Amino acid sequence: MSKIFIIMGKSSTGKDTIYKKLIEKKELNLKKIISYTTRPIRQNETNGVEYFFVDEDYMKELEKSQKIIEHRAYNTIHGIWNYFTVDDGQINLDVSDYLLIGTLESFKQIKKYYGTNVYPIYIEVEDGIRLKRALNREQKQKNPKYAELCRRYLADEEDFSEDNIKKAGIKKRYSNLDINICLHQIIDDITKL
After folding, report:
1. 129 membership: H or E segment, kind and range
2. What is the tens place of the pLDDT at every residue in 82-111?
3. For the whole model, what pTM was predicted?
4. Are the beta carbons of 190 and 28 closer than 8 angstroms?
5. Using the 8-state DSSP alphabet, how is residue 50 labeled?
């Protein structure tokens, strides 16, 4: 049976970059799982690449059809933003290993749905470095949303508390101060599994 690897960590820990580099490693043969969101698309994002960007009506149709595997909602300064994974035919554990970016909550829900074939890849970076990275990224946006950046940064403290990490069963952490070292450690562990 194949596996689902879920990359998670606080905002601006480098999850997207690590995700892209792992997908590029052909020898790992990891398939993408594209999540869905109702949040607005950001500059330089492409529908169907980072996420499927949908409206709430479409999300409700998926809920009625019992297609949603996991769901998270965030009350942002711009309203409720939903993120969710859908049983839409992307995942076939008889055929492939998969890679997904998620949260502790999505990890727990997906593990409940798929069982022991789900593995965490928890990325961490010192908070001051994370804040600098987040600010640099936001400054590059056409319309920077600094209040949302601050909300996410503070929400991470609660969402990724030590207690929540422990409850999710996360035992191994990968420090992303040097992306090459971090990637090497992750690739080594994926290969062993």
Report:
1. helix 127-139
2. 999 999 999 999 999 999 998 999 999 999
3. 0.85
4. yes
5. T
